[in-house]
Write a structure and sequence with these properties.
The structure is a homodimer.
Chain A: H1 5-39, H2 54-76, H3 79-85, H4 88-99, H5 107-125, H6 136-143, H7 146-170, H8 175-204, H9 213-239, H10 242-264, H11 273-300, H12 306-315, H13 321-326
Helix pairs in contact in A: 1-2, 1-3, 1-4, 2-8, 3-10, 5-11, 7-8, 8-9, 8-10, 10-11, 10-12
Chain lengths: ~325, ~325
């Protein structure tokens, strides 16, 4: 297996991040319910009484802890490993909802959980090792290699065309336009989040990277990408059903992030073909499990609290959550 | 990957076996439909007009070709590789049914197909290599090693207890009794089928194995196990719904076969932990995909022809099909 120390740290961080985020949904929802019971008005209908409920705030804090862990995980392990593991938070929340909130998990939902776990194990076993990075300039030199510049160029052109041409024309009829913009920008923001995370990690290790303009450039990219992403994600959610947007976004975003990481960090160089294929299969299995879990949630749930439960699925796209909270 | 020549042959044979068997269901069903249209009586209601329908016989021949290919596959590749690939015949039949019979495949069914394929790829990549076997005595010596004798002994005792004690008492209320007997016997019959197949392969290569009593002993075991299996499988099907029996039987039978093969042929010796875990995960994924595909078939199908379609799923347990046909 040759699982490096850094990969292990990243793996544990990604895992605990998923546990925290998954648990946070449940805590927040318990808070919402309690607030609704106390005031008689539900959040969905305009009440804000949940802001007085300590449980809701505890959930919020749990979520932030989870997001920070996810951010730090990117500094240690390749995105090919960290990004797909985000799906595990859905399992945690589904299982906890079953036991704590008495939201019955459909039998096929259990199958979805099993698949997510099996797929994650395959991914973890075949995760590539990252070569150690010693300065932000090293990341910079990866970012300006021709192949990655070509990727960035294509993304920028595509997103530009989608915003200028397709969004006004068919953005409100075709779900792929807004979610496409979010996913493409998302792949760039994860890459820059990884750069910023690595710079911070090196800084904490005593190797100050905040002196270099490259660090701040990456911070600027993070901010730009995330704001664009948030903007169009909200548009997508306003226009289409969350149940439609979420799986499409998850699949596109995760796939593009892995593609970007493979190009920029050359994750797959030096790996044998079998490992790469296994990783892709593992990824497909996790995606299928996620879709299955997501679809079967519809089967048994009553329509009340629907918004409150679907929203969390969306929050799984870790890198945007903190900003979403701040904005 | 280190995929040996023999593994490749076994893999191609198992794959074409699944294609033939999967296609045979569709051809037979088309034959049944045509016969029903011609005579006005359906097979399920007692008509035998399908015996005059050439299409039905073509389907039967296709199935026998598939079963022979499956039998030969066991002579070349380890059971750990061949057995789980049997699930692919379900995909072939589901996809063909979608296009040829216009039986709409549920969206989750497509997901099940994708999973079966992804899981199979992981299994194939990590399949162990078999050491070349040069005589039936070699297989005999593997069969009489203490660990495998312990397995056989436990199986015989367990099956005996189930037949004598549990079958009369709760065989008609608990689905696990009859299917358990079938699955345990099934694991032994696959091992002896593999022995007979290997002996035949060596004989065709000019190294006559039919002179040795061991070969005929294994033939005897195949016959005994398969007849027991058939007997209790029919009891299970008479007592319980096929939709309940099939997935349980598939999971138990495949798991026990892999266990028996790992003990007898030491498939996992010399494999690293990562490969073994990947294989198990791949197997779990294939099982989940099979269950998903099987469950969602229920969602959209009308109740007519139900028996006709469920029966085929059962036929997937390759090693018993020929006998089922003969008896």
């Amino acid at each position: 297996m040759g699982f490096s120390q850094d990969n292990l740290k990243g793996f544990v961080l990604a895992l605990s991040s998923s546990a925290f985020i998954g648990a946070s949904f449940i805590i927040k929802k318990k808070g919402l319910r309690r607030a609704a019971a106390a005031s008689g008005v539900r959040a969905g209908v305009g009440g804000f009484s949940y802001l007085l409920e300590p449980l809701w705030w505890l959930g919020m804090i749990t979520m932030i802890v989870g997001e920070v862990a996810n951010f730090v995980a990117y500094a240690f392990a390749p995105a090919v490993l960290v990004t797909p593991l985000g799906a595990l938070s859905i399992i945690v929340s589904a299982v906890l909802a079953h036991f704590i909130l008495n939201e019955k998990l459909h039998q096929l939902g259990i199958l979805g959980c099993v698949m997510c776990i099996a797929g994650s194990i395959v991914i973890v076993i075949h995760a590539p090792q990252e070569r150690p990075i010693t300065s932000v300039q090293e990341i910079w030199s990866m970012a300006i290699q021709p192949a990655f510049l070509l990727y960035v160029g294509s993304v920028v052109v595509l997103v530009f065309i989608m915003i200028v041409h397709f969004a006004p024309q068919c953005g409100h009829s075709n779900v792929l336009v807004f979610t496409g913009i979010c996913s493409f920008m998302g792949s760039l923001s994860v890459m820059s989040v990884k750069a910023v995370g690595t710079a911070l990690k090196l800084t904490f290790e005593g190797n100050n990277q905040l002196l270099y303009p490259e660090t701040w450039f990456f911070v600027l990219i993070v901010a730009t990408c995330v704001i664009t992403q948030m903007n169009y994600l909200n548009k997508a959610l306003d226009t289409f059903n969350t149940a439609v947007v979420s799986p499409i976004y998850y699949v596109m975003f995760t796939s593009l992030t892995i593609l970007a990481s493979v190009i920029m960090f050359k994750d797959w160089d030096g790996q044998n073909v079998g490992s790469i294929i296994s990783e892709i299969c593992g990824f497909i299995v996790v995606l299928s499990g996620t879709i299955l879990l997501h679809t079967t949630r519809d089967f048994e749930r009553s329509s009340s609290f629907r918004g409150a439960m679907f929203r969390p699925f969306l929050f799984d796209f870790h890198q945007i959550i903190l900003i979403n909270f701040v904005l």
